[in-house]
Design goal:
alpha+beta; 10-stranded antiparallel beta sheet; 6 helices; 23% helix
């Protein structure tokens, strides 16, 4: 409930904001000193994201979920220069310096590090850390995009791998059929009720013809399938509309998530 209230406040504070990479970031660092990792909630998250059940080891991506309420509070603040509603997760880099278990009580801290221009708008970099005994045991650097006109040509700065012709040579290892309600299922276990993930009716006013999968679901599902537990990096190249069918392709340290529409995510371990 507190997170839903934060998201509601973010919808209000975002009214009238004019995103710009030249804006000032609030010097705000939020900390939760002893976070309890609820085994039941973590098990529900693991089920939605494809992680193995019945384990006390925290999935590599789960501390991001623990830190999301703090990140949402920062992005919902009146002086945060980007509107919270409609922000799109564009990249993530996670490093686990040692395993976390449900018995741990880590300190979770989040701060906004920088703003930077993007061909489709402005990105914010948020850093989340889990610390035990003053030492970082897990870190996450994520970027979030506020889409707005920039004056750049549509093809300027385009990332590779966003079209069907660039599907790449990585072999397919798994294929997943994603239901229309996946965004709502992930919202219930993550707390991320951004309207772009919930239903076509709530996604359309924010520029998406259909609901799209959470970026955090796509990277968690890839990490679970590949057994990644120490490090993962990914760029979210294109939204995954719901429903749809996607394929995980991987070889060595590289992987990607793709469909007939093109490449949606590229990553490495």
């Amino acid at each position: 409930m507190p997170l839903l209230l934060t998201l509601g406040r973010g919808a209000l504070t975002g009214l009238g904001k004019h995103p710009s990479a030249g804006a000032a970031l609030p010097p705000l660092r939020l900390t939760d000193p002893r976070v309890r990792i609820d085994p039941a909630r973590m098990a529900r998250y693991a089920e939605v994201c494809g992680y193995p059940p019945l384990t006390d080891r925290v999935p590599l991506t789960y501390p991001h979920i623990l830190g999301f309420p703090l990140a949402a509070r920062i992005m919902a603040a009146r002086d945060f220069p980007l509107p919270l509603m409609g922000l799109v997760h564009t990249s993530i880099e996670i490093t686990a310096h040692r395993p976390l278990t449900t018995a741990d009580r880590p300190e979770i801290a989040v701060h906004a590090e920088e703003l930077r221009p993007h061909r489709r708008g402005t990105e914010a970099v948020l850093v989340t850390e889990a610390r035990i005994g003053g030492a970082a045991v897990w870190t996450d650097r994520s970027t979030y995009l506020a889409r707005h006109p920039t004056g750049a040509p549509p093809t300027e700065g385009a990332e590779p791998g966003t079209g069907p012709q660039d599907a790449g040579a990585l072999p397919v290892v798994e294929e997943w059929r994603l239901p229309a309600g996946l965004g709502r299922r992930h919202a219930r276990v993550s707390g991320d009720y951004n309207p772009i993930h919930l239903h076509a009716l709530t996604a359309r006013p924010l520029g998406f013809p259909r609901a799209i999968a959470h970026g955090m679901w796509t990277i968690a599902r890839c990490a679970a399938a590949l057994g990644l537990d120490e490090r993962v990096r990914a760029h979210f190249r294109a939204p995954v509309p719901l429903p749809s069918t996607v394929a995980l392709a991987a070889a060595g340290h590289r992987f990607e998530l793709r469909s007939p529409r093109g490449v949606h995510l590229t990553g490495s371990s």
